[in-house]
């Protein structure tokens, strides 16, 4: 079975394993596909496409040819009926011969609800393998990581039980609750300041408070700090900014605040608090009183780097992170998803703009749809290229290529066939090949197909935005005879948490604040469930803002874009803006700023489900 064991204590052995995997990437990928197909050929899904090849017997090549010819490249909507059946208790071997043990809720949505990805027991070991490989890579580049601890701020989210009893939960919640995660402590490189009980506390405020407190108490031992994504790390820093005096008081008195009511959290923090410590409280208080620039470096002076993903949509947080971390290296170490974990950064100290990920060829079978980036004009999405590579559904124009056959400089959309029942599944990520490590390609994450706005883990595409804006137009503006002449948007990450900003140009004599606030609220109510959850339960997105610009502003925007190379004939108002320069063009025309005063409702239960 292609499930490689890896001892995180054995750096030489693990580095050797990486060389072996990447040198034999083609063979490894063939072995992975063979294992997935032979194990799952009898499943309803694969049998539906490959049934007649069932008797190919030892002719393995025939299976591969048939797989590529007959198994379609799919998106979530095509697999969701099978997943719904699993969620509803159908125990037949629908997509996987291995039992599906849980459903992983992705931050991508379908029909407004989070997508659910199947998972099996073995998959936890595959994830652990990747984390273990990373330990060796980090030790290669940063010495002495076993001489202290990592202050990793990690969180879980509530789980939902499906009618079948299968849990639906985010991939990291699943991992942190697994024995694989709890057993990590046996490795000396995995020592961390947060007690598992604090990480596993469902109340995110109590969890955050306790983890920060433990990080502060053990500040002299901290060698690295981090969270999974940049947005989460910044939220923690903001929380520290708002709560440092209470945290100091707890350190000074040795008593944990009463509002921490989670008993296992209290107990675990009490062991670390270990009595009053006024010297430490003074030191923390003195640093926090000096202001926030470089606070991470000052509070945790031995920190060598900050481990947070700053690629993709998280790149917007780099300037703010630099401010708070005092220029500590920002390391993006891993590229993963709910579908499966993909790969790691083999040169983790590279600057954020140079980060590339090597997909590990034993994690899944990878294919790549070439994407024609000549249709991309910076601010626009890749709808054109989607049409030209929409798999075998809308007529084949581009054929996918295998992992080792991608070309340097080529843009591709990632397709995975996993050990857990996804076959030729379009992940939706667009990647650029930057080079090779042995025969395994290395990829820069470019963006997610169609996504125009993202602050935390939510992914809002152009259609979602259009739908929400249209609802505000129909429900609020049109009944008052106000016409929305044009709009665009950007993700404002300068505030913590960041928030969506929409620029509206209106055909109205003047704007009424109440009306515009209602527009903000309708837009938020109409955005998808993950946006509303981040805004409502997680508080990881701030109130949506509409900035009304004076009449004629979008003509000025067009003139600006045309003078910067857009063709007049083909000019379309960009529905989202990434460049600060373009934001400034509209910013100068703003006549009013309005915010949503309500948090949108967040429906906790997807259809047919109830919380545990
Ligand atoms: P989810 O399935 O909700 O965990 O989201 C997975 C998605 O997050 C991926 O498909 C990517 O779009 C994004 N993602 C994960 N890791 C990275 C990374 N290292 N850099 C940029 N984007 C990432």
UniProtKB/TrEMBL annotation:
<comment type="similarity">
    <text>Belongs to the IAA-amido conjugating enzyme family.</text>
</comment>
<dbReference type="Pfam" id="PF03321">
    <property type="entry name" value="GH3"/>
</dbReference>
<dbReference type="Pfam" id="PF23572">
    <property type="entry name" value="GH3_C"/>
</dbReference>
<dbReference type="InterPro" id="IPR055377">
    <property type="entry name" value="GH3_M"/>
</dbReference>
<dbReference type="InterPro" id="IPR055378">
    <property type="entry name" value="GH3_C"/>
</dbReference>
<dbReference type="GO" id="GO:0016881">
    <property type="term" value="F:acid-amino acid ligase activity"/>
</dbReference>
<dbReference type="GO" id="GO:0005737">
    <property type="term" value="C:cytoplasm"/>
</dbReference>
<dbReference type="Pfam" id="PF23571">
    <property type="entry name" value="GH3_M"/>
</dbReference>
<feature type="domain" description="GH3 middle">
    <location>
        <begin position="357"/>
        <end position="448"/>
    </location>
</feature>
<dbReference type="InterPro" id="IPR004993">
    <property type="entry name" value="GH3"/>
</dbReference>
<feature type="domain" description="GH3 C-terminal">
    <location>
        <begin position="464"/>
        <end position="581"/>
    </location>
</feature>
<keyword id="KW-0436">Ligase</keyword>
<protein>
    <submittedName>
        <fullName>Indole-3-acetic acid-amido synthetase GH3.17</fullName>
    </submittedName>
</protein>
């Amino acid at each position: 079975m292609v499930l490689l064991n890896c001892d995180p204590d054995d750096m030489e052995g693990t580095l050797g394993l990486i060389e072996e995997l990447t040198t034999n990437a083609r063979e490894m990928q063939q072995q992975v596909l063979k294992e997935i197909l032979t194990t799952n050929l009898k499943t309803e899904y694969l049998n539906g496409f490959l049934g007649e090849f069932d008797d190919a017997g030892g002719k393995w090549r025939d299976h591969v040819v048939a797989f590529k010819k007959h198994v379609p490249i799919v998106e979530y909507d095509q697999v969701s009926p099978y997943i719904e059946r699993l969620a509803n208790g159908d125990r037949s071997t629908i997509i996987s011969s291995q039992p599906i043990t849980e459903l992983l809720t992705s931050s991508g949505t379908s029909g407004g609800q989070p997508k659910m990805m199947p998972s099996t027991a073995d998959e936890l070991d595959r994830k652990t393998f990747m984390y273990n490989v990373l330990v060796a890579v980090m030790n290669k580049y940063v010495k002495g990581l076993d001489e202290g601890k990592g202050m990793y701020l990690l969180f879980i989210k509530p789980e939902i039980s499906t009618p079948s009893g299968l849990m639906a939960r985010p991939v990291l919640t699943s991992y942190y609750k697994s024995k694989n995660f709890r057993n990590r402590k046996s490795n000396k490189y995995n020592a961390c300041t947060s007690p598992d009980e604090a990480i596993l506390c469902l109340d995110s405020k109590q969890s955050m408070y306790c983890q920060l407190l433990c990080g502060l108490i053990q500040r002299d031992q901290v060698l690295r700090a981090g969270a999974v994504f940049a947005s989460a790390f910044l939220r923690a820093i903001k929380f520290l900014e708002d709560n440092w005096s209470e945290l100091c008081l707890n350190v000074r008195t040795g008593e944990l605040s009463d509002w921490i009511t989670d008993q296992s959290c209290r107990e675990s923090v009490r062991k670390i608090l270990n009595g009053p410590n006024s010297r430490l409280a003074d030191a923390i208080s003195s640093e926090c009183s000096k202001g926030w620039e470089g606070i991470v470096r000052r509070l945790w002076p031995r920190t060598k780097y900050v481990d947070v993903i700053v690629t993709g949509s998280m790149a917007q947080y780099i300037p703010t992170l630099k401010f708070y971390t005092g220029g500590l290296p920002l390391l993006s170490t891993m590229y993963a998803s709910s579908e499966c974990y993909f790969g790691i950064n083999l040169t983790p100290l590279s600057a954020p703009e140079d980060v590339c990920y090597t997909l590990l060829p034993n994690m899944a079978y990878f294919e790549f749809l070439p994407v024609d980036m000549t249709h991309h004009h910076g601010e626009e999405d890749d709808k054109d290229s989607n049409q030209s590579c929409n798999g075998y559904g809308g007529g084949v124009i581009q054929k996918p290529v295998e992992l080792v056959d991608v070309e340097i400089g080529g843009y591709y959309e990632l397709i995975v066939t996993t050990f857990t029942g996804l076959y030729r599944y379009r992940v939706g990520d667009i990647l650029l090949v930057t080079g090779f490590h042995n025969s395994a390609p290395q990829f820069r994450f470019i963006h997610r197909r169609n996504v125009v706005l993202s602050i935390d883990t939510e992914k809002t595409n152009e259609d979602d935005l259009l739908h929400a804006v249209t609802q505000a137009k129909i429900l609020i503006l049109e009944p008052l005879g106000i016409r929305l002449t044009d709009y665009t948007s950007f993700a404002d990450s300068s505030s913590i948490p960041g928030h969506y900003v929409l620029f509206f140009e209106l055909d109205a004599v003047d704007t009424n604040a109440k009306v515009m606030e209602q527009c903000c609220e309708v837009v938020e109510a109409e955005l998808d469930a993950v946006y509303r959850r981040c805004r409502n339960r997680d508080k990881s997105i701030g109130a949506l803002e509409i900035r009304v610009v004076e009449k004629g502003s979008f003509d000025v925007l067009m003139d600006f874009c045309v003078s910067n190379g857009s063709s007049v004939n083909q000019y379309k108002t960009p529905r989202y803006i990434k460049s600060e320069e373009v934001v400034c063009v509209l910013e100068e025309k703003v006549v009013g700023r309005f915010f949503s005063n309500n948090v949108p409702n967040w429906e906790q239960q997807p259809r047919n489900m109830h919380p545990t």
